[in-house]
């Protein structure tokens, strides 16, 4: 079969022939119908110094959807032909973090597409416990991004940031993750949504998705503009969905007294924290958010299937597996028209 592979320590990704994987007893074999790509895949392929890849060679892709074509001997409750999405976070289910409901940071956790072979291939294997059933009302492309691009901002805003109906939120970075943060904040009752980005196209798109205000990140008066748009005070919650220390600093300045800042975007830059007095006297919370739980995906799938959430506009490009290398190049180009990119393999039955 064909798979998009990377080699640890080398830059680039190549579409090559590899054997079809064989599922272990607790796994299933999936014919991949859609695999989302994002900035993490670009970093894994083109920034070997980031050391995201832990195996000598690996198939990329941590946003899978497909259908089951074979079952491991111990798998129950699933059948060949079932349409599924796959959570990329492989957990142990036994550590102190898993037992406390924080499986997204499992002490022994690993990631499909970074630590295990991923989804940009004709076939993949996955633990049966990582599967989420896809109803007919959810397309393969949306099913794929429901495994990461949407649950990540949902977890950040609601499970970590504790956004409440009627609160105000600023979303810093309205690309692949941030655009969904805007949609989710609107759907769940945020009183005012402020989008911040360096790209005019993304700001325009954020407005179309429900942002009430949209400001350029390089505006020297950004903090003043956010407060003016928010009735003269800082926001209740700022979410940072871009890997930039400058964005984190700007987000902190946008938060009002008693507010929260949740950081999702990854950067290698050192962070400069404000004086402790700014934290203590204003009682601002700085929160990290690095994943999601399986039940988060299940909840979002149910909401999409019921028509309560619509992410049909999220995927801007769908390419075949033979164009997988070009799909990565699209993401590398930082074109404002590129939002979510999905590779749609056409495997043999």
TrEMBL record:
Sequence ranges assigned to domain Enoyl reductase (ER) in this UniProt record: 12-343
Listed name of the protein: Alcohol dehydrogenase
Domain of life where this protein originates: Bacteria
PANTHER family in the record: ALCOHOL DEHYDROGENASE-RELATED, L-THREONINE 3-DEHYDROGENASE
CC cofactor: Zn(2+)
PROSITE patterns: ADH_ZINC
UniProt keywords, alphabetically: Metal-binding, Oxidoreductase, Zinc
One GO molecular-function entry: oxidoreductase activity
InterPro entries reported for this sequence: ADH-like_C, ADH-like_N, ADH_Zn_CS, ER, GroES-like_sf, NAD(P)-bd_dom_sf, Zn_alcohol_dh
Family in the record: Belongs to the zinc-containing alcohol dehydrogenase family.
SMART domains listed in its UniProt record: PKS_ER
């Amino acid at each position: 079969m064909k798979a998009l592979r990377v080699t640890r320590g080398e830059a680039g990704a190549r579409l090559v022939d590899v054997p079809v994987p064989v599922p272990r007893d607790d796994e299933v074999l999936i014919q991949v119908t859609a695999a989302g790509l994002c900035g993490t895949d670009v970093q894994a392929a083109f920034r070997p110094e980031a050391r995201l890849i832990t195996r000598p060679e690996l198939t990329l892709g941590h946003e899978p959807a497909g259908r089951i074509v074979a079952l491991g001997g111990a798998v129950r409750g699933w059948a060949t032909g079932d349409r599924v999405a796959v959570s990329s976070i492989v957990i142990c289910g036994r550590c102190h973090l898993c037992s406390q409901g924080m499986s997204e940071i499992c002490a022994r956790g690993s990631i499909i597409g970074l630590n295990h072979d991923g989804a940009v291939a004709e076939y993949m294997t996955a633990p049966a416990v990582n599967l989420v059933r896809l109803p007919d009302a959810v397309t393969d492309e949306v099913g794929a991004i429901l495994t990461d691009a949407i649950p990540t901002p949902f977890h950040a805003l609601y499970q970590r940031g504790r956004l409440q109906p009627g609160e105000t939120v600023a979303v810093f970075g309205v690309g692949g993750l941030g655009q969904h943060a805007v949609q989710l904040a609107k759907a769940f009752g945020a009183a005012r949504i402020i989008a911040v980005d360096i790209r005019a196209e993304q700001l325009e798109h954020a407005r179309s998705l429900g942002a009430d205000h949209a400001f350029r990140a390089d505006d020297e008066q950004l903090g003043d503009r956010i407060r003016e748009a928010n009735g003269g005070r800082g926001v209740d919650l700022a979410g940072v969905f871009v890997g930039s220390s400058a964005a984190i600093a700007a987000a902190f300045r946008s938060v009002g007294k008693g507010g929260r800042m949740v950081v999702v975007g990854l950067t290698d830059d050192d962070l400069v924290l404000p004086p402790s007095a700014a934290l203590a006297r204003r009682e601002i919370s700085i929160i990290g958010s690095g994943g999601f739980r399986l039940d988060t995906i299940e909840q979002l799938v149910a909401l999409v299937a019921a028509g309560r959430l619509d992410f049909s506009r999220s995927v801007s490009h769908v390419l075949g597996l033979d164009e997988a290398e070009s799909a990565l190049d699209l993401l590398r180009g930082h074109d404002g028209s590129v939002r979510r990119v999905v590779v749609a393999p056409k495997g043999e039955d």
